[in-house]
Amino acid sequence: MLPGLRPGQAATVRFEHISKWYGDIVAVSDISFGIPPGVTGLLGPNGAGKSTCLKIMAGLLKPSAGSVTVGGEPVRGTPKVYRRLGLVGEQEHVYPFLTGVEFVRMNAIMQGMADPDGATARVIAQVEMEDAANRQIGGYSKGMRQRIKVAAALVHDPETILLDEPLNGTDPVQRAGLISLMRRLGDEGRTVVVSSHVLSEVERFAQNILVIVNGKLAAAGDYRAIRDRMDQHPRSVRVRTNQPRLLAAALIADPATQAVRYEDDGWLAAETGDVRAFSTALPRLARDAGVRLLDVQPVDESLASVFAYLVER
C-alpha cells in the first residue's frame, strides 16, 4: 500500500518512485505516495520540492524517473485528464488589464463550458469576490488575486484541484473563506491537494498530510499523527502583545516555556519543548496577566528544523 493511503482507500493520484533532477540538482528523489479523495496537505519548508510535485501531478513537468497517474491514467500528454484538473500555481499567472469576471470567463471559454457566464458567476460567488469582480486584476491585493485564481481553477468543475500555497498573502477573513471552500470541495468527494509550509494552516483543512523535505517523503498520515511527531521537537514561537514585559514574566514562570527573549521589532520569542501545552497555556497566561495577544507566529527556521528532525527519525 502506498504511503498516504489507509486500508481500503483508492488513490486518485498515484506517485510511484518519482524523481526529478535538473543536471546535478535533484528536486525530488524517489517519492512514492497515494492521494485519496478529500483534502491532502503537502507540507514542507520552502524549497522542499512541493511545487515540483504539484507540477508533475498537473502534467506540466515530466518526471526524470517513475510514473504518475491521475484517475488511473497517465497525466502528461492526456488532454482528457487535463480537463479534470484545476491548478492554482504559486507564481502569478493573471492578466492585470482584465477584470476578475473577464479573467475567469476566459478560462471558462478555454475549458469549453456550455454556459461560460453562468459558470463564471458560480465560482466568483464561491470565492466571495462579487463586489470586486468588475475591477481590473492589476488593482487587486495579493489575497484578492489568490481568490480570483482559485475561481479560474474551479470554473470547469474539476474533479482534482491542485493548489500551491493558496493562502499566501491572504488576510484572516480571506484565509478563513478559502479554508472553508477547500473543506467543502473535499466533502463533495473531490481530490484537493494543497501545499503549504505552515502546519497550523494545513491542519485546519487537510485530513491527510504528506511531509516533504529535501525532495524526499519524510512522513505521511493524518494531521494528528504528524502533529504528535512534530510536537516532540523543541519549537520557537513569536508573540506580539501590548505589554511584552508582563507576558514574558508570565511565560517564563510556566513549565511549558523553556526560554523567552525580546526581539528588536518588539516581539517576544518563546522556546518550548511542548507545543501543545504552550498553545493551551498562552491565552490563559495572557488573560491572567491582563495583556492582549496581537499575533502569534511559528518561527520558520524552527519549523525547518522540525522537518529535518522528521527525516532523521
Structural account:
By secondary structure, this protein is an alpha/beta fold. It has two domains: 13-227, Rossmann fold, CATH 3.40.50.300; 235-312, Alpha-Beta Plaits (2-Layer Sandwich). 37% of the residues lie in helices and 28% in strands. The chain is built from eleven helices and 14 strands. It has helices spanning 50-57, 79-82, 100-110, 116-126, 142-154, 172-187, 199-205, 223-230, 244-252, 275-289, 300-312, and strands spanning 13-22, 25-35, 38-43, 65-70, 73-74, 85-88, 160-164, 191-196, 208-213, 216-222, 235-241, 257-262, 268-272, 293-298. The protein has a six-stranded mixed β-sheet with strand order 6-7-8-3-9-10, sandwiched between helices. Strands 2-1-4-5 form a four-stranded antiparallel β-sheet, with helices on one face. A hairpin with a 2-residue loop joins β4 and β5. α3 packs across α4 (116-126), α3 runs parallel beside α5 and α9 packs across α10 (275-289). The model has no long low-confidence stretch (mean pLDDT 88).
Write the layout of secondary structure elements.
Layout: E1 13-22, E2 25-35, E3 38-43, H1 50-57, E4 65-70, E5 73-74, H2 79-82, E6 85-88, H3 100-110, H4 116-126, H5 142-154, E7 160-164, H6 172-187, E8 191-196, H7 199-205, E9 208-213, E10 216-222, H8 223-230, E11 235-241, H9 244-252, E12 257-262, E13 268-272, H10 275-289, E14 293-298, H11 300-312
Helix pairs in contact: 3-4, 3-5, 4-5, 9-10
Low-pLDDT ranges: none
Number-wise, the strands total 14
Return the CATH architecture of the largest domain.
Answer: 3-Layer(aba) Sandwich
Helix-strand makeup class: alpha/beta
Quick one: CATH class of the largest domain?
Alpha Beta
Question: Radius of gyration, rounded?
Answer: 21 Å
Question: In whole angstroms, how far apart are the ends?
Answer: 21 Å
Helix residue percentage: 25-40%
Shape type: globular
Q: Kindly report the name of the CATH homologous superfamily of the largest domain.
A: P-loop containing nucleotide triphosphate hydrolases
- % residues in beta strands: 25-35%
Strand order of the largest sheet: 6-7-8-3-9-10
